[in-house]
Amino acid sequence: MTKNVQEMPAPGATAVARAHAVYTPLNLYFYDLLVHGLSNHLAWRCPTRRLSALYEANLSGNHLEAGVGTGFFLDHTGEGRIGRLVLLDINRHCLDCAARRLARFNPTLVQANLLAPIATSLAPFDSVSLTYVLHCLPGRMHEKLATLDYLRPLMNEKAVLYGATILGRGITPNLAARRLLALYNAKGVFNNYEDDLESLTAGLRQRFGHVAIETQGCVALFRAS
Ligand SMILES: C[S@@+](CC[C@H](N)C(=O)[O-])C[C@H]1O[C@@H](n2cnc3c(N)ncnc32)[C@H](O)[C@@H]1O
Q1: Pocket perturbation via mutation, ligand 1, pick of 39, 48, 68 by most ligand atoms within 8 A of CB
Q2: Structurally, how many domains does the chain consist of?
Q3: What is the CA radius of gyration of the chain?
Q4: How much is the pTM?
Q5: Atom 11 of ligand 1 has which residue's CA nearest to it?
Q6: Which of 29, 32, 87, 173 has the most CB atoms at less than 10 Å from its CB?
């Protein structure tokens, strides 16, 4: 059973809805091929193995996956590591898709908006992943990073938050990246034209004592604790 932990609609509900409406069962069927098979390499120039390595390095046995998509990275890196797993997403189809794929880890599902306080009684986690979510969320970087304030109460003192996001500013996108950025931002699937490394770094440093952040192609990969 899925817990729905928020009763109040979040601010900017239309923009929030546009950012995840694309994840229909049909689109999720093609998601891994399109995003992790093609776009990461050809457009964002951040090989998928680099993102997998981030999971290999930071995934704990007590993990919260925030923004689950198809569950791709946990499927590839979770074996023998995951003890407790919670999948959190606003989109029902993503939760269902990832839950099926990751059924062997017996996940708990939480349907919630990352841009609003997460009113749950969940016990805290040792790792939280936020992979390819920030570039979807509407608003300026400081508004998107409010999600860190909602996730932090769910983190143990020594927990690690890690993830990656596609930047829209301060990068040198190739033709494919420019076309995809234009298309996805026009549709509201991405909201990242104002996202740059400086604002991401500043927001992480405001909230965490230890921050490591690097870029590969158009992607910023981060780890904070
Ligand atoms: C681009 S996908 C990334 C999925 C996965 N982490 C990956 O890297 O393949 C973005 C995910 O964030 C979720 N999402 C988008 N907006 C959200 C919001 N406001 N609250 C919670 N989840 C959201 C989407 O439903 C989707 O599962």
Answers
A1: 68
A2: 1
A3: 16
A4: 0.94
A5: 67
A6: 87
Residue with tokens 């193995």: 49
Range of the domain at 181: 2-224
* Cα 130 to averaged position of ligand 1 atoms, centre (Å): 8
Phi, psi for residue 84 in degrees, rounded to 5:
-110, 130
To test the pocket of ligand 1, the residue of 48, 90, 184 to mutate (highest count of ligand atoms within 8 Å of its CB) is 90
Q: Is the pLDDT of residue 4 over 80?
A: no
Is 69 near ligand 1, meaning CB less than 6 Å away? yes
Query: 67 pLDDT exceeds 90?
Result: yes
d(CA 167, CA 173) in angstroms, rounded, equals 10
Amino acid at the residue 44: W
- Determine if ligand 1 sits within 6 Å of the CB of residue 23: yes
